[in-house]
Specification:
The chain is built from 15 helices and 16 strands. By secondary structure, it is α+β, with helices and mostly antiparallel strands.
């Protein structure tokens, strides 16, 4: 084993170990039943993103026969081999948990999935009527002819493949795909005297597929799902219109290579071979699934009304005792700085801070970064309101926030229409900092009020993730924040900071310096202490310094 291999974990295998820790919560009988289902759904959603980004990127390197090893000493092909082995074990654990534990226990608790084998006649009549009156009108079977490219579904999307018998002796079978889309509910509710009974959309489509082809014979149906590579990079050096370039990149994602094919394990060898060939998937990247595809769709079930005894008690974010409801945020921040710990303390003061700024006639300008926001963001609404009232509003909207690009492009356009100065981030970098600067005219002169956050300006995720908000009118921090904004919007290097550090300029050297101080302190026999909270640690210099 090389020196590096002994000291560094492979990034991808390490991430899979993180997902295993989430899966362990789903496997734990100590967790309430619907919480276990929720954790199972999270692991499936996590895997989708992992395939789209990490596996997709590695497959491109492997196709180019790149032999460069990572810090753990593994080439792209070696990493892919290990990843596939690890994921197959994880999938086995996921579906064993679902089939052998969660589904039977949910059935006992009154949450029951109906199938062709156990559906009652009254339920069958309801589902048949719904298929004829609704589903048959909405869904569109797409015929696949020989030598024709397969359709480019938005991915990852669940589909039903239908194999039909024909009278053509040369081509005795033909195939049709039925994309299920995201507009229709995955769970079709059935009449039930007790509890909640449902049928999965793909089961209903498979059951009534014959009605799409009245003059032909349906030989077989199967559900499948493809995942495409999303690890595509915008050409920032040649992009004259960055937003248009991002939109082209999003379009390119829909046509990128297929990194994973999931297919019902009960499907025939003929069907598997046809799908594998149609999507040009390596057999190593085909995953037969022993249960419903896309377990991430189980998330809504975990919040079913009437089954609260199967969940944890709802978490309530408490109002901060530091904040008065009778004084404006500005009055309070003149007296003291405020630290909030979310989700334990409410995110409402942050929204209130920006809301008050939008409506305060003494506020001259607002500068804010936006990375991931909610679909009906009150913060974005406040920025637009501020601009409409004549305030100078600048928003740095990061178009490269992965999988939020469409929403951010939408917000950027709306903000621009309302008179906000919109900046699309920095070339070759992501603006990941969460900062808001409010400049206010007061009797003694201009005062700056600042919010720094480790999370996003998203009131919904602020109830889920642990993050820190710091609000202050500190002079030096205000000067630093303005310098930070001006450097990004002006495309220049920032003035020397007083109290902040920002990547990629000063943050890493400062962290290394602080680590060295603790090493020196320990060598002298003094008290040395380092505590860090990070999402992911991949910088080799920092890792070596910590060793």
């Amino acid at each position: 084993m090389s020196h590096n291999a002994a000291r560094f974990f492979n990034r991808e295998l390490s991430w899979l170990q993180f997902n295993q820790r989430v899966l362990d919560l789903a496997l734990s009988a100590a967790q309430p039943l619907l919480e276990r289902l929720k954790f199972l759904a999270i692991t499936a959603s996590n895997l989708d993103e992992f395939f789209m980004v990490r596996v997709g990127g590695l497959q491109l390197l492997a196709k180019k026969n790149v032999q460069r090893a990572d810090v753990a000493g593994m080439t792209p092909e070696e990493q892919l081999k290990k990843i596939r082995e690890r994921i197959r074990v994880m999938l086995s654990d996921q579906y064993r948990c679902y089939r052998e534990e969660l589904e039977p226990k949910l059935f006992e608790a009154g949450i029951r999935r109906a199938t062709f084998e156990n559906i009652t006649q009254p339920q069958l009549r309801v589902i048949e009527e719904r298929f004829d009156e609704e589903l048959a009108s909405i869904l569109s079977p797409i015929a696949l002819w020989p030598d024709e490219e397969v359709p480019m579904f938005p991915e990852p999307e669940l589909c039903v493949a239908v194999r039909l018998q024909t009278d053509d002796h040369e081509n005795p079978f033909r195939f049709v795909f039925i994309p299920l889309g995201k507009q229709l509910p995955r769970f079709l509710t059935l009449p039930s005297e007790t509890g909640y009974e449902f049928m999965l959309l793909e089961d209903v489509v498979g059951m009534f597929a014959q009605r799409f082809f009245p003059d032909e014979t349906v030989v077989a149906t199967t559900s499948f799902r493809i995942t495409r590579n999303a690890d595509l990079i915008v050409s920032e050096d040649v992009a004259s219109d960055f937003m248009a370039e991002m939109e082209q990149l999003l379009q390119a994602r829909k046509q990128s290579h297929c990194v994973r094919l999931e297919i019902d394990a009960q499907s025939s060898a003929t069907m598997q071979a046809h799908l594998t060939q149609s999507y040009h998937v390596s057999p190593a990247d085909v995953y037969p699934i022993e249960g419903p595809l896309d377990l991430s769709d189980m998330m809504p079930l975990s919040g079913l009304k009437g089954f609260e005894q199967l969940t944890d008690e709802p978490w309530i974010s408490y109002p901060s005792e530091q904040i008065s409801s009778s004084e404006s945020m500005f009055e309070q921040l003149v007296e003291k700085s405020i630290l909030l710990l979310h989700p334990y303390e409410s995110f409402d003061p942050v929204i209130r801070f920006i809301d008050e700024a939008a409506d305060d006639p003494d506020v001259l300008s607002i500068k804010q970064t936006l990375y991931r926001t909610s679909s009906n963001s009150p913060i974005v609404a406040a920025l637009m309101r501020a601009a409409q009232s004549g305030k100078y509003v600048t928003a740095i909207v990061e178009l490269k926030a992965r999988f939020d690009e469409v929403r951010n492009i939408d917000w950027a356009r709306q903000l621009e229409r309302e008179g906000v100065n919109v900046i699309y981030g920095v070339r070759h970098l992501k603006t990941h900092a969460k900062v808001c600067v409010i400049v206010r005219q007061e009797p003694q002169g201009i005062r700056r009020y600042i919010h720094f956050g480790t999370g996003n300006y998203n009131e919904k995720t602020a109830t889920l993730y642990s993050d820190v908000s710091y609000m202050t009118s500190d002079f030096d921090l205000g000067a630093d924040a303005v310098s930070f904004f001006n450097a990004i919007t002006g495309g220049s290097s920032p003035q020397p900071f007083h109290k902040l550090e920002a990547a990629p300029l000063g943050l890493k050297p400062r962290l290394l310096e602080m680590i060295e101080i603790e090493i020196d302190q320990a060598n002298r026999g003094g008290k040395a202490f380092i505590r860090a909270k990070v999402n992911s640690l991949v910088d080799t210099e920092i890792i070596e310094a910590l060793y």
